[in-house]
Design a protein that fits this description.
By secondary structure, the chain is mainly alpha-helical. The protein is built from six helices and no strands. It has helices at residues 2-21, 31-38, 48-74, 77-94, 97-110, 124-152. Helix 3 runs antiparallel to helix 4 (77-94), helix 4 (77-94) packs antiparallel against helix 5 (97-110) and helix 5 packs antiparallel against helix 6 (124-152). The longest helix has 29 residues, at 124-152. The chain is elongated, with a radius of gyration of 18 Å. The model is unreliable at 1-20 (pLDDT under 50).
Length: 158
């Protein structure tokens, strides 16, 4: 039992250290959620596990943005809603709060709802225009967290 208590102390220390070394992204990254990903790393220096998840997300996000642009041109709200939902889940797992929130808005407008998901918005053009605006903001929010996380992982391309 004593070793379990020791592990809890170590995890707590690691959390404190992790928070101080996490990039300061204001409310763009939820530190508690991201820390849970970091706790799965075997080696705190290399951080191979968390880095693979984060960089996998980068690839996924870039591909999803391209698909969103395509479906935006086609006016396919159903696909846009689905892609918003998909990326919302991935970004939530990493604690990327602003990215998650924007993806959720795309999901809602793709389903003919307002950004809160509570009010019907029957006009396709209105929904598509809002998605276009949100997607532009989403790309900026994504670029900010991508840069911060690449810096965190000591990636020289940051």
């Amino acid at each position: 039992m004593a070793s379990g208590a020791h592990r809890a102390d170590t995890a707590e220390e690691r959390s404190d250290e992790g928070y101080s070394s996490l990039p300061d992204c204001g409310d763009s990254i939820d530190p508690m959620t991201f820390e849970q990903i970091l706790e799965m790393d075997d080696d705190e220096e290399e951080r191979e596990f968390s880095k693979s998840i984060v960089y996998g997300f980068f690839e996924q996000a870039e591909a999803t943005f391209k698909k969103m642009e395509l479906y935006l041109q086609r006016g396919d709200l159903e696909q846009l809603s689905s892609l918003g939902h998909f990326l919302k889940g991935s970004s939530a797992t990493l604690g990327l709060t602003k990215v998650k929130d924007s993806c959720e808005k795309i999901q809602h407008f793709g389903a003919h709802k307002d950004e809160s998901g509570t009010v019907d918005v029957p006009e396709d053009v209105k929904c598509l225009n809002r998605i276009k605006e949100i997607l532009a903001s989403l790309k900026v929010e994504y670029a900010e967290v991508e840069k911060a996380l690449k810096h965190f992982y000591h990636d020289s391309s940051a």
